Amino acid sequence: MADELKDAVLNYVAKEYLEDDSEPLTYDTPLISGGIVDSFSMVSLKRFLENKYAIAIPDDEATPEAFDSVNKIVSLVQKYVAKKG
Amino acid sequence: MAYSDKIRGTYQAQIKGIQDAGLFKQERVIHSPQAADIEVEFPAGSPLKKVINMCANNYLGLSSHPEVVKAAHEGLEARGYGMSSVRFICGTQDIHRELEQRLTEFLGTEDTLLFPSCMDANAGVFEAILTKDDVIISDRLVHASLVDGIRLCSAMHDTIKHSDMGHLEEKLQLHADKRFKLVVTDGVFSMDGDTAKLDEMTALCEKYDAMLLVDESHASGFIGKTGRGTHEKCGVVGKMDVITTTFGKALGGASGGCVSGRRELVEMCRQRARPYLFSNTIAPVVVAGVLKVMDIISRSTERRDKLEKNAAYWRKGLAEAGFVLREGDTPIVPVMFFNAKLAQDFSRALYDEGIYAIGFFFPVVPQSQARIRTQISAGHEIHHLDMALAAFTKVGQKFDILGKTKQDIIAKYGM
């Protein structure tokens, strides 16, 4: 699941936030601290993850730090998918 | 005394950091009325220099128009200088209501409320009409004042890629569960000079039951056949739910702004918008000036027609000289330099040639998108534009960028 999840998040972020002439993303590219995703735009990423994986991420865990790379986002999603059991 | 050396030192270091990054803003002091020809002191202490102003928001050339100045004088005599009160205590005069009525008719809306500025209108409108159960979907290039107003509001906020209608539709679907959806855009985008696709946005908002708010600060008075704004250009007058706009640009250029739109939304601003509730409104002298501006633009389209011709002449001249321009058909014509230092050096060289136009760079525009934003006015005559074109061409030759592509310029000067 991890690889599939990683690719789904990476593809979503690239489609949602990158312009045509942007540098390609890696799993560790800093998204928020790197200026690719602004804090306002995190909301659609959070909603996308919650809808796709049928989870609820509490607002106090959806921090700029927790959303700062594809790998960090994947860890957060996995935590809530596991909780769902 | 609590302003310790530690506090002072911290701010001094921050200011030095801004200077070291090349981002320090310096005012150039003008010693004449705002117009196409101005006298400027720059750098501070220098002798006054006569220059052609190519960067004012004075689109209709009304900032120092004799009829507007005379009306302001008469307004000052007839209604006094200040109100010494907010609107709902004892700060509303007949001329405030008259201006609101005139704006409602001009913008094709249901009602209008004046604000001290459009910055204040944008700061107050969202919190007044939305709650945490709602969502705001804004274009990623909207003006900073809209971003600040959205931040003050408890509604969820999401963004779309600039003018990407497919992306807007996806977001309207994503947020279908929200109580209300409000789509937010500039009419004319101030840094790029392109216009919002209000016809397509209106259709999408109708399809997905969303409201539409447009900031018309760089459009009111001159975009569209009779200058009503971007909604007139796009054929959707009467369909805007909220328009915010300013009197600090084309409409006399002094100060003030408004929220205009659906009757209930305007009434909610009258009841709840904090910049309206807790600040004096526009001074009577300014209201009298704006009323005269409304007379001038309502009796003839002469000024906006001249502006349109001037802008087309300017854009064609720059393109033929070989500059890289942002596409568009508004009086905002950005000349692209990409490199921040090049834009600043070019601006300084233009000033030496008697042309006043400012370089913009990150964070005002995205990284590697540095530019000189030129703005055309109905106050410009062809001889002003010809002199400015000659200066741009001369400086362009000096920097060897004429006829060069974006890639050429970046290869020569860097990002």
Describe the secondary structure blueprint for this structure.
The complex is a heterodimer of chains A (85) and B (415).
Chain A: H1 2-17, H2 42-53, H3 70-84
Chain B: H1 5-20, E1 29-30, E2 37-41, E3 49-53, H2 66-79, H3 87-90, H4 94-107, E4 111-115, H5 118-129, E5 135-139, H6 144-151, E6 156-160, H7 165-174, E7 181-186, H8 198-207, E8 211-215, H9 230-233, E9 242-246, E10 257-261, H10 263-272, H11 274-277, H12 284-299, H13 302-321, E11 332-338, H14 340-352, E12 355-356, E13 359-360, E14 370-375, H15 382-398, H16 406-413
Parallel strand pairs in B: 3-12, 5-6, 5-7, 7-8, 8-9
Antiparallel strand pairs in B: 1-2, 2-3, 4-10, 9-10, 11-14, 13-14
Helix pairs in contact in B: 2-12, 4-12, 5-6, 5-10, 7-8, 13-15
Features:
heterodimer; A: mainly alpha; Non-ribosomal Peptide Synthetase Peptidyl Carrier Protein, Chain A; B: 415 residues; alpha/beta; Aspartate Aminotransferase, domain 1; seven-stranded mixed sheet
Quick description:
The complex is a heterodimer of chains A (85) and B (415). Chain A is mainly α and 85 residues long. Chain A is built from three helices and no strands.
Protein architecture, described:
The complex is a heterodimer of chains A (85) and B (415). By secondary structure, chain A is mostly helical. Chain A has a single domain (2-18, 26-84), classed as Orthogonal Bundle (Non-ribosomal Peptide Synthetase Peptidyl Carrier Protein, Chain A), CATH 1.10.1200.10. Helix content of chain A is 51%, strand content 0%. In chain A, helix 1 (2-17) crosses helix 3. The longest helix of chain A has 16 residues, at 2-17. The two termini of chain A are 14 Å apart. Chain B is α/β, with parallel strands linked by helices and 415 residues long. Chain B folds into two domains: 35-63 and 302-413, Aspartate Aminotransferase, domain 1 (Alpha-Beta Complex), CATH 3.90.1150.10; 66-299, 3-Layer(aba) Sandwich (Aspartate Aminotransferase, domain 2). Helix content of chain B is 43%, strand content 16%. Chain B has 16 helices and 14 strands. Chain B has a seven-stranded mixed beta sheet, with helices on both faces. In chain B, a hairpin with a 7-residue loop joins strand 2 and strand 3 (49-53). At the A-B interface, helix 2 of A face strand 6 of B.
